[in-house]
Amino acid sequence: MSSDDIFKKTRKEYERGALDETSVAPDPIAQFRRWFDEAMEAESGEANACALSTVGSDGRPSSRMVLLKSLEDEGLVFFTNYGSKKGRHLLDNPYASLLFYWPALERQVRFEGGCSRTTSEYSDSYFRSRPRSAQLGAVVSQQSRVVESRGIIDSSYASVEAKMGTESISRPENWGGFKLVPSLVEFWQGRESRLHDRIQYEKIDGEWRRDRLWP
User: Fold this and answer.
1) Statement: 12-126+177-213 belongs to CATH 2.30.110.10
2) Which of 194, 198, 210, 212 is an active site residue?
3) Sign of the torsion formed by the C-alpha atoms of 51, 13, 186 and 61
4) Per-domain residue ranges for the chain?
5) Which of 80, 83, 109, 168 is 20 to 30 A from 123 (CA-CA)?
6) Does the predicted model carry a pTM greater than 0.85?
7) What is the residue-wise DSSP string for 47-75?
8) Is residue 88 flagged as an active site residue?
């Protein structure tokens, strides 16, 4: 069977839910909390996994999966190496998008907005909560840079692990959080005949405006 035939056979109908603008919360973060709680119950994987899309100074977009680590009334927080490709992009162009996809519920949520670094104290607090192995990984990693082999990564980790012994590990200065403060949020619920429900929140003059979009 050719790949074209396989793709044709993947078509399915979306019929597990509906979304009505009269039933959603007036604030998108509150609505997201509702859906996230339901996704935590329904999904077998990491419901907090999302695609982060950034654009560099060259105007070229780039996407990768990250994990949402904090949800606050004003925004969403994830952590990374500031020297990574996404970290450099966000320092050059602080606007980004986070996309959550929960296939078990046939739902997507997209956030768009500006990103800024969390405070050092905030990043320190989260870093201390990480497993020691993840702390060591953050110290070792030169994220997004070219490396000649896996062996170099493993030997670097072993070297730092031996050097640190049982000492506490401090957060590297080049590692920390970003908070995305949304100005636009879209909730997508799959529906039959590809006539999906799409409810968009857009912040205008400090207030959230809610609209239904054509699928």
Assistant:
1) yes
2) 194
3) positive
4) 12-126+177-213
5) 109
6) yes
7) TTEEEEEEE-TTS-EEEEEEE--EEETTE
8) no
